[in-house]
């Protein structure tokens, strides 16, 4: 898949755990884990918005396109 999800990188930069982010954005651990590991097939804009607010970043910091 050409879309790379760098959620783990941003979480490490912000020193935030998966549990902490899950609580902040009100998303289940399993859904957040699927997104973090790249197993998710889609992401809602509302979820992306919440993640960006919680991690104080831009969508481009989390999503990357590689051929």
TrEMBL record:
SMART domains reported in the protein's UniProt record: HTH_XRE (SM00530)
**Molecular function terms, GO-annotated:** DNA binding
Q: What is the protein named? A: Transcriptional regulator
Q: Which SUPFAM superfamilies does UniProt cross-reference here?
A: lambda repressor-like DNA-binding domains
Any Pfam family hit: HTH_26
- Describe the location of the HTH cro/C1-type domain by residue ranges: 7-62
